[in-house]
Design brief:
The chain has 2 domains: 67 residues, no CATH class; 115 residues, 2-Layer Sandwich (Transcription Regulator spoIIAA). Helix content is 43%, strand content 12%. The N and C termini lie far apart (43 Å). Helix 5 packs parallel to helix 6. The relative contact order is 0.14. The protein is globular. The longest helix is centred in the middle third of the chain and has 16 residues.
């Protein structure tokens, strides 16, 4: 593969494309893209390859529409952004939750990145959990040894179920309590999600 020019990599590392597209400046572009793509996609559930998908802002709504989406981006910045978001708040973060509804499968590179994130967060005393994990993704996680590393008890079907588990941490066998001296009012789980509301 031809190496991507450094200026392109630095450009996309310097901005949050998901926030840009869903914020005031890029909202019209985001909605127009949805309208065009939906108009031209064939009916039914499709397998979609989102090339250059960045943080998954388009993969999220495509998955919500019922498609199986695989995201690829040559700017491998997921690990840095994830750890940066989790560690920036310091002692205030006890759990870090990755919202995975847009992800139905992972490759070896993604599995390695998740493994590194899990290990690094644990080193800082932070619990790593996944929300909205679909069966296909769960199977890939198991095959990569990530279920054994994380613990199947840290995969949750919804964001509310994660919040409930966080509130019950230390009171049952399902959650770990970090010895930080902080209470439930002072600390909440940090959630990295794909700019998508939880279905009602």
């Amino acid at each position: 593969m031809t190496e991507l020019p450094r200026e392109i990599i630095e450009h996309y590392r310097s901005i949050d494309e998901g926030a840009r597209l869903t914020g005031a400046v890029g909202r019209l572009e985001f909605l127009r893209t949805q309208e065009i793509v939906r108009r031209h996609l064939p009916a039914g559930s499709l397998r979609v390859l989102d090339i250059g998908g960045a943080t998954g802002v388009h993969a999220a709504w495509l998955a919500a529409d019922g498609h199986r989406v695989a995201l690829f981006d040559i700017v491998d910045d997921f690990r840095r952004r994830t750890l940066g978001a989790a560690l920036a708040a310091g002692e205030q973060v006890e759990w870090f939750v990755l919202y995975t509804e847009a992800n139905v499968e992972i490759d070896i590179t993604a599995a390695d990145a998740l493994r590194e994130i899990c290990v690094e967060l644990r080193r800082h005393g932070i619990t790593f959990a996944l929300a909205r994990v679909k069966q296909e993704l769960r199977e890939d996680l198991a095959a990569a040894g990530l279920l054994e590393l994380m613990g199947a008890g840290y995969l949750y079907p919804t964001l509310p179920s994660v919040v409930e588990a966080f509130r019950r941490r230390g009171k049952s066998g399902t959650g770990k309590e970090r010895k930080s001296g902080m209470n439930d009012v002072q600390s909440t789980p940090a959630v990295l999600e794909q700019d998508q509301e939880e279905p009602s």
